[in-house]
Amino acid sequence: MLSWVPCGHGTTPEDPVGCRGADVPGHTACLAHLADAERDAYLYSLTPGTDIDHSGTTFTEPLLDALLDALRDPATGYPRLGDARFISATFEGNAEFDFATFQGEARFRSAIFKGAAVFGAATFQNDVGFQSAIFKGDAVFQTATFERTAEFRVATFQSGAGFEMATFQGGARFEEAAFQGNAGFEIATFQGGARFEETVFQGNAGFESATVQGDTCFVGAVFERTATLGPLVCAGRVQLSGAVFDSPVTLSLAARRLECRRTRWSSTAEIRLRYATVDFAHAVFEYPLTIAAEAEPFVLSYGQPMAEQALADAPDDGVRVASLRGLDAAHLVLADVDLSGCLFAGTVHLDQIRLEGTYSFDRVPPRTHWRHWYPLRFTPRRALAEEHHWRATRPAAVRGWNVAVLGAGHIGPAQLAPVYRALRKSFEDGKDEPGAAIFYYGEMEMRRHDRTGTTRAERGLLRGYWLLSGYGLRASRALGWLAATMLLTIGLLMGCGLPKDSPKQEATGTVPPGGGKVIFEIDKADPQNPTGDRFTGERFDKALNVTLNSVVFRSSGQDLTTTGTYFEMASRVIEPILLGLAVLAVRNRVKR
């Protein structure tokens, strides 16, 4: 239903409404169907800044030029309009609004531009709406200024759409718009944010050197042939969740946050970022995709670095990945990014992820902490954000674990052990054995604390393995236990393992009466338990000799008491194991 009184010219039985153009005030016909004298009188009555309503009117080029000439400001030589309503208007030829100033609202909803729509250097001081407009020719908005909200929702641009150097001082809304040709927003400025939800870009979407002061929303947008997106500066978030990229694309973005939840890439892609925190949860891609941090400002096509004043107050601490949950990481490459807050649980094929350049994970709390009455010190290593969350929520958690991990959910050791295992395999495949060893330690820690998938006996073995050698990765711990065991063995041997005196051989025999063959039996007396001073230098030397030989499975040949013999047997089992654990730990730390 029309919100204005239609002209009604040319009614027929098939079309009882006829012309739908709005009546000119004081007349019963639209501007296109007024008599020449009446049209001239109406145009003569117009002054710059007058409100006009020509909704539904069909404009030829001469008719539009006559209307704009009547509104031309003598001081500037350019048209100046108040409220301008061109709702459902049809522009048969080119619609040229170059340098026009729209002081009031500019309404072009459902308008049809059959030729070029030219708004070069136009100024929109109030809201502007192109909802459901159809641009069959080029749409040119170079250096246009939008001081309030600009709405192009459900607009169709059948040829190229140029918004180069345009300034949107309010919000810019292109929801469900369709750009069938190239869409140019180079050097455009969006001071109130830019919204492109469900927008379809069938050609290239050019945003080189564009600046957005608020958020940039491409939720559900479709990029069919876009080769590059950016470099773009966004002071807020760039939202690409649910967007679809059908062709190879390079995204160059400087923003505080990039959201790509359930984004789909149907070809290769490279995402180069500055400042941003990236959320890639449940993204879908079957071809190589690279997320890389840029250390310096992006260089534009004409060789100059891109200005980043919109992010002047943003912390320049690198690019951070917030979540990789739910995606298939088989083709994912991360370069020079911060993974200290990244959520990995639920990532598919995490063992095939590639990490390049300089990357970082979170660490366990440093220094010694006191839990109740005993000290607690964590082995320095990398730790996932989800482990921080789990440990921080445990009863009697020590300080230092990160309690601000967002979105971790109910993740425990049972879920984290496979994550550490997958990351370990990724590092092993990359021939980084020391890096793999760190994640192996995390995997063992999660298995030791898992009370659902690990039996009590297995947890006991893991606890012993951890105490003795840090899962075969802490040589100092194994060597410490070895030294302690050797000292204990020496002390025990000196105390009760070495006999009082070394037993001497004795020969006994019987001489038959009347002579004959004498038979001797040679034997040793049983070692006697020591008495008196047991801790002498001589006894220490003997005990050290026995202990050192025990480390390498050799017998010292030293006579021992019965108790000492059992001590030696025990040390010949325990001490070589501890030595082997120490050697294994050194190997795991240095092997490449």
Question: How many strands appear in the DSSP assignment?
Answer: 47
Give the helix/strand class.
alpha/beta
On the 0-100 scale, what is the average pLDDT?
86
- The gross shape turns out to be rod-shaped
Radius of gyration: 42 Å
Helix content: 10-25%
Number of helices: 9
What is the chains' assembly state?
single chain
Share of residues in strands: 15-25%
Distance between the termini: 76 Å
Report on the biggest sheet.
24 strands, parallel
Low-confidence stretches: none
Task: Report on this structure.
The chain has 592 residues and is an alpha/beta fold. Helices cover 24% and strands 24% of the residues. It contains 9 helices and 47 strands. It has a 24-stranded parallel beta sheet that branches. An 11-stranded parallel beta sheet has the order 2-5-9-13-17-21-25-29-31-33-36. A hairpin with an 8-residue loop joins strand 46 (505-510) and strand 47 (519-524). Helix 7 packs antiparallel against helix 9 and helix 8 (537-551) crosses helix 9. The longest helix has 29 residues, at 562-590. The two termini are 76 Å apart.
